[in-house]
Structures are given as structure tokens and as C-alpha cells.
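User: Let's play a game. I give you a shape written as C-alpha cells, and you guess the letters that built it. Ready? Here's round one.
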């Protein structure tokens, strides 16, 4: 079956196929540590929608260009000059009024005995605050605009979690804020030994709003740890991410006492390359399985999250009542029974 359409192109995302059926998506803004700007939010969903339905794609690897960062998160400079956050920048304080600037003059009085005394004239009452100018945004309308922007950004990040193909996020260098949000939407997370993580939204006065606060506690081992990293915004390393289940493997030559190592400003190019080789090995293994079985497994796991085992069993039974009719089952049983090491499955 041929591709129904060409993949969308974007200067911010590189798409390659290093081995058959394995797509490599690379966040491509290395000069800014792959930090996100608004066009990147808009380009992400069409790309993963294409990969989700592409018959030549069975597994996706997501990484960042360059050795320094998976992504440093939101580009704060760009966000402060345009977009919804720019509307929230505080206005400079108004200059003091002439009444406030004028120094109060003391007044002299005489007591009945003729003894003078001096008192400070009380300042005049402050005028009531002016009504908002017509150019000032109405709070309800500003809230509506922000709601639209936030849900658009949430949908963009969630385009990874709704993709039917398995996604492996290879985390290296800086993985801050939005980087963790993206990683949590992937199915598998590998990290290099020198990868560093932080929930940096807290440092700019934001409760992370793209899914991290909803997903992290469901995917890791300790709610206390989740609150620790989300409230403090502290930096933690790959060993800690592995210990609490944020990543499933540290790849690319793990070292001892890595939490005590100095952060490498120039990144870890060799470690990233070694990690990519391990990621490709995993992806090649999965791409060699039946796409009917792999995508069905992902569908059932995702559907079952938050539901009872009984509901999951029923959904699986209905799903497999259709999917067991695939020719992949008979082919795999015949060829595995014949001691063939690899079975070739048709495109889905």
C-alpha cells in the first residue's frame, strides 16, 4: 500500500527513516536548545497525524537536534513578546498624581492660652480608581482568549498520545518544562546518563498546564516525589528519573555516581549517539512485530487506563474478536513453528 499523502514539512521538525518502518522525528531548533515557539505548536499535530496513519511507519523515535537538549521548554523571550503570555505582562506603575507629589505644609494654631503649636495638615483623600479604559481587555474576554490558547497548546502536545504508533522519546541534555510534557505523551522514555530534568513552569509563576500535572502522578511511583519536583522546580538527573519511573531505561553508557557529576555545558554528543543506537535497536525489534498486534496492544493499554480490569477485559474481547481474524496470526504461528527467526508482516 502506498502512502496516501506526503508528510507535512516544517523547519522545526526533521523527519527521517533511519531503518525501515522506523520514523525519527527530531525537534530542530538547536541554536535555542530546541525551545518551543508558537509555529512549533501548530506544526506538531499535522506531523503526528500523518505518522499515525502512515502504512510505512510502525515506530516513532522523538529526540532533539544537537547534543545539548531534548528541549529546554518554552522560549521565554518569544513568549514574553507575542502570544497569550505577552498579554499578561504587568503594566508599568502610574506616575504619582500632583496631589501625591505636593508636599504638605504644616499649619500653626494658637491655644486659648496663646501658646502656639504646629500640626501637619492631613493629606486629601485619594481619588477613586479610574474605570478601565475602553482599550483595556475585559477580564472575561481575556480569560476566553487564554482558554482557547491553552486548549490549543494542550491538543498540540496530546497529538503524541493520540498517535496510534508507539513513540519512544529519547531524552538527552536539558529536558525542562515542556520537554517533560512531551515525554509523558510518548509510550516509552529512554534517557542518557547526563540528561537533566526540571518542571520549570513553577519558576515563571505557572502551574504546568499542558498535561504534566495530570499525567506525571499516574505514570510514576510516588505522589510525594511528583509534588516535590513540581513545587520546587529543582533539577534532577536521569538516575532519579529512572528510580521513580519517569524513564524506563538509562542508555548510552550509564556511569556511577552520575547525580554528583557536573553538568556538561557542551552536551554529551557521544552519549546521545550511543543512546540513539540503543533506541534504534528497540525500535527495530518492535517494527518487526505484527503492526496489528502492536497497535492493538497500545489501543487497549491506553483505553484501560483509569478503568476497571473487568471493563478492560470486555474491551479486549471485543477488540480481538475482530483483530484475531488477521492473517498475521496464522503466518506467525506457521513460520515460528518452522523455526524461522523473523516473520515478515504486511503493512497495515
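Assistant: Ready! My guess for every position:
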Amino acid at each position: 500500500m502506498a502512502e496516501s499523502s506526503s508528510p507535512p514539512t516544517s523547519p522545526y521538525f526533521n523527519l527521517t527513516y533511519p531503518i525501515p518502518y522506523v520514523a525519527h522525528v527530531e525537534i530542530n531548533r538547536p541554536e535555542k536548545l530546541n525551545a518551543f515557539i508558537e509555529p512549533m505548536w501548530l506544526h506538531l499535530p499535522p506531523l503526528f497525524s500523518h505518522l499515525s496513519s502512515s502504512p510505512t511507519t510502525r515506530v516513532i523515535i522523538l529526540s532533539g537536534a544537537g547534543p545539548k537538549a531534548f528541549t529546554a521548554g518554552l522560549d521565554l523571550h518569544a513568549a514574553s513578546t507575542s502570544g497569550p503570555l505577552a498579554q499578561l505582562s504587568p503594566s508599568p506603575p502610574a506616575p504619582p498624581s500632583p496631589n501625591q507629589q505636593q508636599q504638605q505644609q504644616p499649619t500653626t494654631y494658637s491655644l486659648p492660652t496663646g501658646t502656639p503649636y504646629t500640626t501637619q495638615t492631613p493629606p486629601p483623600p485619594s481619588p477613586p480608581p479610574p474605570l478601565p479604559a475602553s482599550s483595556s481587555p475585559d477580564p472575561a474576554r481575556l480569560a476566553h482568549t487564554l482558554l482557547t490558547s491553552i486548549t490549543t497548546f494542550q491538543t498540540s502536545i496530546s497529538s503524541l498520545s493520540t498517535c496510534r504508533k508507539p513513540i519512544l522519546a529519547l531524552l538527552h541534555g536539558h529536558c525542562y518544562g515542556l520537554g517533560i510534557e512531551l515525554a509523558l505523551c510518548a509510550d516509552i522514555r529512554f534517557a542518557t546518563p547526563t540528561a537533566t530534568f526540571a518542571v520549570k513552569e513553577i519558576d515563571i509563576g505557572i502551574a504546568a498546564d499542558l498535561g504534566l500535572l495530570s499525567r506525571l502522578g499516574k505514570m510514576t511511583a510516588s505522589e510525594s516525589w511528583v509534588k516535590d519536583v513540581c513545587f520546587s522546580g529543582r533539577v534532577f538527573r536521569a538516575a532519579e528519573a529512572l528510580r521513580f519511573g519517569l524513564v524506563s531505561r538509562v542508555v548510552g553508557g550509564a556511569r556511577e555516581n552520575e547525580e554528583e557529576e557536573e553538568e556538561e555545558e557542551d552536551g554529551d554528543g557521544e552519549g546521545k549517539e550511543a543512546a540513539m543506537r540503543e533506541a534504534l535497536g528497540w525500535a527495530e525489534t518492535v517494527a518487526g512485530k505484527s503492526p496489528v498486534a502492536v497497535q492493538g496492544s497500545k489501543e487497549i493499554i491506553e483505553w484501560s487506563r483509569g478503568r476497571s480490569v473487568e471493563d478492560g477485559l470486555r474491551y479486549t474481547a471485543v477488540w480481538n474478536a475482530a483483530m484475531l481474524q488477521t492473517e498475521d496470526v496464522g503466518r506467525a504461528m506457521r513460520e515460528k513453528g518452522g523455526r524461522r527467526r523473523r516473520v515478515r508482516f504486511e503493512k497495515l
